[in-house]
UniProtKB/TrEMBL annotation:
Native organism: Shinella yambaruensis
Family, per entry: Belongs to the ectoine synthase family.
InterPro entries for this protein: Ectoine_synth, RmlC-like_jellyroll, RmlC_Cupin_sf
Function field: Catalyzes the circularization of gamma-N-acetyl-alpha,gamma-diaminobutyric acid (ADABA) to ectoine (1,4,5,6-tetrahydro-2-methyl-4-pyrimidine carboxylic acid), which is an excellent osmoprotectant.
EC number, as in UniProt: 4.2.1.108
First-level EC class: lyase
Protein name, entry field: L-ectoine synthase
Catalytic activity: (2S)-4-acetamido-2-aminobutanoate = L-ectoine + H2O
Source superkingdom: Bacteria
Pathway: Amine and polyamine biosynthesis; ectoine biosynthesis; L-ectoine from L-aspartate 4-semialdehyde: step 3/3
This protein's UniProt keywords: Lyase
Length: 126
């Protein structure tokens, strides 16, 4: 059994952040689960341009308010508590936080926990 708390991850290499976001990588590749699970916070007013070319990502909103834009289609979807969105086609997207967002994010394949976004908003192959 794996038991991890957000507090244990704070301040370690698995506590990643960048302009407007922070991600605590709770379950990572070394755990052998086939996915990684992250507690992600997006600051109010942040606009993140992302494109996970090598990973699928599913996000569940716990709190806050924002929107996600599918760059390929121009569709914009509201995000409020209870919303889940999945990037099932390696979708380039823009995440906007109207209010601070708290998300639970799942990546497949799993991240090792120390990745940083590349200039194009993606992570290297896992």
């Amino acid at each position: 059994m794996i038991v991890v708390t957000s507090e244990e991850i704070a301040g370690t290499p698995r506590d990643a952040s960048g302009p407007g976001w922070q991600s605590r990588r709770m379950i990572v590749r070394e755990h052998g689960m086939g996915h990684s699970v992250h507690e992600t916070r997006v600051a109010k007013g942040a606009e993140l341009h992302l494109h996970y070319k090598n990973h699928f990502e599913t996000n569940y909103c716990i709190s806050g308010e924002g929107e996600v834009e599918n760059v390929s289609t121009g569709e914009v979807f509201p995000i409020v508590p209870g919303t889940i969105y999945a990037l099932n086609e390696h979708d380039p997207h823009i995440l906007r936080a109207k209010e601070a967002l708290l998300l639970v994010c799942v990546f497949t394949p799993p991240l090792s926990g120390s990745e940083v976004h590349r200039e194009d908003g993606s992570y290297a192959e896992g």
